[in-house]
Amino acid sequence: MSAPGPQVLIVGAGPTGLAAALFLTRAGVAVRIVDAAPAPTTTSKALAVNPRTLELLQPTGVADRIRTEGQRISTIRVAHEGRVSATIRPDWDRVAPGRPMTILPQAETERLLAEALADLGVRPERGAGLTGLTQTDDAVIAVLSTGETVTAALLLGADGAHSAVRHALDLGFPGDASDLPWHLMDVDIAGAAPDEARIDFQRAGPLIALPFSGGTFRLIGFGEPLLPRLPASWTAERSAGNPSSRSRIGWLRPWPSAGSPSPGTPPISTRPSADAA
Q: What is the dihedral of CA 261, 264, 243, 241, to 10 degrees?
């Protein structure tokens, strides 16, 4: 089945695809945006929204909502083996007045972009992945997993690391892999400043802590388990059997394995919060 084509077909409804759809729609360009996933992601690895991104999003109204819902980073502590060796307090107003580096889970950023796009009458079409494409001198003919064929003047591939668009064009994605297990965790921490990031270069591997919601921190690192490597003044809190409690520890995933934590990691429960490629 064929359908009238948009000017631009966007494949991938992550932050890049949604932002592109929003900018183009505001400029009067007819777009369709499709995504293979049946529903929006509820998790994400990415957290930071930088000042330049906020500047670009300012006319859309999304930047104000990101600043309202996100967490500003006022201080960055750089440590070595637990001992702070440098304290950085970025002057965000000199970089971009009114647009500080803001921490907000990628899933929330996507939600805000999708809501702004919906206000303009455009919604991502879920469960519609790209299965093939051909090109002519003035158009792209895309075949979707729904069986639909779409003809557009331009196709924008924004479908991530395993891009169907890139594979259809036979484009490489060179890089190196590491066997080191990377760990991502969202943890409620007592004793840590809620607007301070910390980077600790340890013999066991670097440990990064980023605040993104009150006392909740994203921990990133590789090698040995993360929780025992936190500063002595920090306490990772658990719900203690209270299902209404916000205090909890969530394992996102270890790399390269997407299964169980590495040996020696304390038992912790899965928390759906921030983990999309």
A: 160
Helix residue spans in the chain (DSSP H): 15-26, 51-57, 62-69, 92-95, 106-118, 164-168
Amino acid present at 249:
I
**Sequence-ordered list of residues with C-beta below 8 angstroms from that of 64, at least 6 positions apart, any chain:** 58
CB atoms within 10 A of CB 83: 8
200-238 pLDDT tens trace: 999 988 999 999 877 889 999 988 889 999 999 999 885
DSSP codes, 265-276: PPP-EE--SS--
β 235-236/216-222 pair status: unpaired
pLDDT digits (tens, 9 = 90+) for 168-187: 998 888 888 777 778 888 88
Could you tell me if 113 and 59 are in contact, meaning their C-beta atoms sit under 8 angstroms apart?
no
Q: What is the DSSP string of 180-248?
A: SPEEEEEEEEESS-TTEEEEEEETTEEEEEEEEETTEEEEEEESS-SGGGS-TT-EE---TT-TT-S--
Distance in angstroms (rounded) separating the CA atoms of residues 148 and 135: 16
Q: At what angle do helices 62-69 and 106-118 cross, to 10 degrees?
A: 150
CB atoms within 10 A of CB 4: 7
What pTM did the predictor assign? 0.80
Using alpha carbons, list the distances in angstroms from residue 185 to 131, 174, 196, 219.
Answer: 34, 28, 17, 5
User: Are the CB atoms for 222 and 200 separated by under 8 Å?
Assistant: no
